[in-house]
Amino acid sequence: MVSRRQFLKLSAATGAGLAVPWSISRSGSAKVGAIRAQAAALIAGLSDPALQPKFVNPVPDALHPSFIYTPGAGGEYTVGVGPTAQMTGLVDPSGNLAPTPLYGYGQGGVYTWPGKTFEIQSGPGNTVVNWQNELGGITEHLMPVDTSLHWAYSLHGYEGYSIANAGIPIITHLHGGHTDYQFDGNPEYFYSPGGAVVGPQWNTVPGGFTTRFVYDNNVPAGNLWYHDHALGITRLNVYAGMAGFYFVRDGLDTGRTDNPLGLPAWPYEKAYAIQDRMFYNDGRLFYPAFPGDPMWVDFIPPGYTGPVPSALAEFFGDHMVVNGKIWPKEDVEPRNYRLHLLNGSDSRFLAIRFRGVAAGAVDLQNAGQPIPFWVIGSDQGLAAAATQTDMLLIGPGERFDVVLNFADPALLGQRVIMENIAADAPFGGKARGLRPSFFPNRQTDRIMAFDVTLPLNGAIADAFNPAAIGGYVPSAAPASMVRRVALFEGMDEYGRLQPLLGTAEPTPDVNGNLLNGAIPWHMATTENPSVGATEIWEIYNNTPDAHPVHLHLVHFDIVDRQKFKADLVPQPVTQHNGQLGSGFAMANIKLKGKPEPASGVEIAPKDMVTALPGEVTRIKATFDKPGRYVWHCHILSHEDHEMMRVLHVGPVA
Is residue 60 in a domain? Predict the structure, then answer.
């Protein structure tokens, strides 16, 4: 298996920094293939992805009317999180379908992965969801829990609690929601089954703890999603199945076939949650956390004597899953389809292409050239204009809205594979050829297939016109300040890699003390915009990898990116338990070259931005609701190990 140190050396040789629009060359693949052949074989008992069926099972339809949540008699929704088992399409060594135990969202005791879809109408008023923790009676998480992390039951006053005696804590975040702080899904607002144990921030909310969450409907149409956000175990809860779609519709993007924009509507509108997983042969989810597990030597230092199980800095799975099915397929008509693509993975960046292959093909050996498609929107709505491309980079947590036309006569009766040309590795930006894979016999270069086998239904017009897309205008509000924040890599008290946020310059915290460089979660906040303030954030990435940065509450505009150089000055980082780790502060920052403006696919209401190594990424946002929110890297393993900071809007009580 290739170690992280080897990854960094190899990535330096292949180039750093990724210019927008995204582009990845196919050259150099022979060298990468040789490196892959040296990767360690799967440990005993794990599913071999090469032996699993490809493009056999229909992909679950997340927008099917039967999969849309319905409110109760009072107009409110009640949705629980509970245990279930689901067929993912995985087969055991005997060829039998193997069920996968999960924690899913659902109603009436029926839980699914992903959870059912919310479809909400934009306008005055609110959507109310009663989120119930129905994981009672469970004394051990499906995934190995590293209790040495800064997590829910390691907080001051919570040390006596454990999953064994208090149950699994959860807190649901509506990702992309314009939400009052107490309903935002801040990780310190967790609660155990039945609310027996609640996080400390509920003490700051008038009226105290509640599972009744209120969401603002007065927002444009957009592709949001909901997922768990519990402190220190977000990666585990999401991995176990806690995620689902949340769509807002408005007068233009109605979701109906007669919509004014001519957008493909159901059944020609689809939503795909793309995730990667590892499995045991018997169907159980596998998550590495012990010596000898895949990726252990890549992220845990030699001679490590710290806690076991241990969190790893990143996770990459060897099975691709879409809407809870491994390598599924979709039968389509020869017409335009609207595809909402969500990267719901822990650490994996996706570089998506669509390529035609022969009917029944399960790989890309004889695939045609990439098929152009239209990108019409992103995280929180439609773009300023449609952009045609043949490859799209999607970071963890990011969403893109694309239209793909299957009407080419050459595709009739054939198959189109959704290809992934990003590697099974930390994403470092532009690469001249794929970096090596953690896994032998890589199968993650393919995600799902579309079989162009259904007859065209002429009763429903195919009226898509890319010229009809538009209307989004980036904010013209003047910025009251430029806030300089930064991304770092340090080490925790056990010598493990620890990704951290912080500041690029000395910055006063809310108590008036100057903080600088890498800052852990528990330190006083330095990101404290005034209510109504518009700010430009400069995000300096001092790490060798790209990070998908997410701000709660707001949508923002991506302004530009620019290369920089800086000296990194070592400094101690106090951990949540008072012990010392290490990090850095920046000095002698020098900008290089001209800023590169956002690409066309990024000129949309965004809540995710890819911050590339060695670059400062500038975004612009208006903070219009008061209260305690967060900003973080959306690599889930990063946010669970301190790459998250409080974002407090307005006065701090």
Answer: no
CB 600 within 8 A of CB 383: yes
| C-beta separation of 324 from 59 below 8 A | no
Domain count, the chain: 3
220-240 in b/e form (b: 16+ CB < 10 A) is bbbbbbbbbbbbbbbbbbbbb
- Cα 501 off chain centre by: 18
Residue 329 dihedral angles phi and psi, to the nearest 5°: -135, 160
**Domain region containing 410:** 4-53+272-468
Q: CA-CA distance, 442 to 439, in Å (whole number)?
A: 6
Q: 3-state class of 107 per DSSP? A: strand
Sign of CA dihedral 374, 418, 445, 88: positive
Of the two residues 127 and 430, the one the predictor is more confident about is 127
Q: Which tens digits make up the pLDDT trace of 408-446? A: 999 999 999 999 999 899 998 864 345 567 887 899 999
Domain-located, residue 234: yes
Q: Is there a single domain that holds both residue 261 and residue 276? A: no
Residue 394: strand pairing partners = 350
Name, in order, each residue with C-beta under 8 angstroms of 455's C-beta and a sequence gap of 6 or more.
333
Indicate if 71 and 215 belong to the same structural domain: yes
For residue 23, the SS3 value is: coil
Domain co-membership, 314 together with 258:
no
- Taken in order 196, 200, 203, 205, the sign of the CA dihedral is negative
> Are residues 397 and 382 both part of a single domain?
yes
Q: Give the residue ranges of DSSP H helices in 191-233.
A: none
Residue ending a domain, among 224, 245, 265, is 265
Distance CA 401, CA 378 (A): 6
CA distances from 67 to 360, 400, 593 (A): 29, 21, 50
Q: Distance between CA atoms of 640 and 148, rounded to whole angstroms?
A: 11
| pLDDT, tens only, 61-107 | 999 999 999 999 899 999 999 999 999 999 999 999 999 999 999 99
Supply the Cα-derived Rg of the chain in whole angstroms: 23
Average pLDDT of the segment spanning 496-506? 98
Q: What's the CATH number where 608 sits?
A: 2.60.40.420
For residue 559, is it within any domain? yes
The answer to whether residues 103 and 240 belong to one domain is yes
